[in-house]
Amino acid sequence: MKTSESGGVKVARENMIQSNNVRGKREECLPSSPQDARVMSLDPLLPAQSNKESNTMILLTSHSLKYVSLGVLVLQTTSLVLTMRYSRTLKEDGPRYLASSAVVSAEVLKIFACTVLIFVENNFSVRVVNQLLNEVLSKPVETMKLAIPAGIYTLQNNLLYVALSNLDAATYQVTYQLKILTTALFSVSMLGKQLGFYQWLSLLFLMAGVTLVQWPTGYENDYEMTTVSSRSQFVGMMAVLMACVSSGFAGVYFEKILKETKQSVWVRNIQLGLFGFVFGFLGMIVYDGQSVRESGMFQGYNFVTYTVVVLQALGGLVVAVVIKYADNILKGFATSLSIIVSTLISYFLLDDFNPTGLFFLGAMLVIAATFLYSYEWKPAGNSIIKV
Q1: How far is 342 from 314, CA to CA, in rounded Å?
Q2: Cβ contacts of residue 88 below 8 Å, gap of 6+?
Q3: What is the DSSP string of 57-105?
Q4: Which of 75, 119, 189, 274 is deepest in the core (most CB within 10 A)?
Q5: pLDDT, tens digit, for every residue of 178-230?
Q6: Which of 369, 134, 86, 169 lies closest to 270 in space, CA to CA?
Q7: Among 272, 349, 252, CA closest to 110
């Protein structure tokens, strides 16, 4: 009797061990993350180790793209400012290139780049042409909504050339960060977004920093020896301030349009580019028509000019990549690096910038404000909304 009972216990114990083994094997086969689940749904026969390796590769790729996009943004932002400043101060024998012409050329290149990206996304299908025509022509109301931000962006791009023709690269870089303030204010008023305490504090730091950067030094003799007069300094400042206001409004307006529709970002950029080309071309004819008739649209173009056009056209695409792969902290870090690099190159290479203690203090406040505004604080509740 005892023997049969011990045998039954032994059998029960073996069954339990087998059940645990089976359960363990099933748990090993379960996906450990959404990426693993997606991979296993494609091929359920893949072993668990292979799924984990695939997940690791995905994470490494995403991590690499984040910092690659950061580096590209720093390079693009710094290169655009410095080359644009250099191109507007370079002494040439012939006529200088027209800023309005460069804006039009950049819009054409932007349209071409976005069209290529759409073809790539759709495996170079010919049907993409019909889809683009339908999006642009069959929806005139949706297309016309982009006329407002396109016109403002065109004005902004022209203002940036005016600003960098009258301001050194370092001062321009720091002052142009006021677009954070204008974007925040327009986001609150137009989109109903809320800012947390630290974000409002960062905006105060930003205004204080820009004020210190623009504070007069009082060294009139030294100032008169520089290539930038007080009048051109004022013109450059007004151009930057107007560009900041236009950038904030156009950016928030464009964000609102994107949230109301489901169209591709590249399609929207093509529509923006078309309106930008029309407005830019009309502005070129109105303000520089005589120069265009006398020397042509591409007068004064050289390698530096073509570089400026390419950098300006691809700037929006680089920002789109950064938004996709990076976060606000890294974007703030990229802005800070760009300010520092622009300051160093403007001082050592371009030789058009004389730093002061007030400038460095103001620049540090602006950099701190950029980090503070973009840092994702996580207090109790949802009192902070990213802008």
Answers
A1: 19
A2: 96, 99, 161, 164, 165
A3: HHHHHHHHHHHHHHHHHHHHHHHHHHHHHHHHH---SSPPPPHHHHHHH
A4: 274
A5: 888 888 888 888 888 888 888 888 889 888 888 888 776 554 444 444 444 67
A6: 134
A7: 272
Q: Which two tokens stand for residue 123?
A: 């495996």
Q: How many CB atoms lie within 10 A of CB 26?
A: 9
Residue-wise burial string across 141-163, b where 16 or more C-beta atoms lie within 10 A, e elsewhere: ebbebbbebbbbbbbbbbbbbbb
Rg (CA), the chain: 28
pLDDT digits (tens, 9 = 90+) for 281-333: 999 999 899 999 988 899 989 999 999 999 888 876 766 666 555 555 566 67
Are the C-beta atoms of 87 and 290 separated by less than 8 Å? no
Question: For residue 376, what are its two tokens?
Answer: 């994702």
* Rounded alpha-carbon distances, angstroms, from residue 249 to 160, 236, 256, 322: 16, 20, 11, 21
Percent of residues in the chain assigned helix, strand, coil, to nearest 5: 80, 0, 20
Q: Which residues contact 199 (CB under 8 A, 6 or more apart)?
A: 184, 372, 373, 384, 387
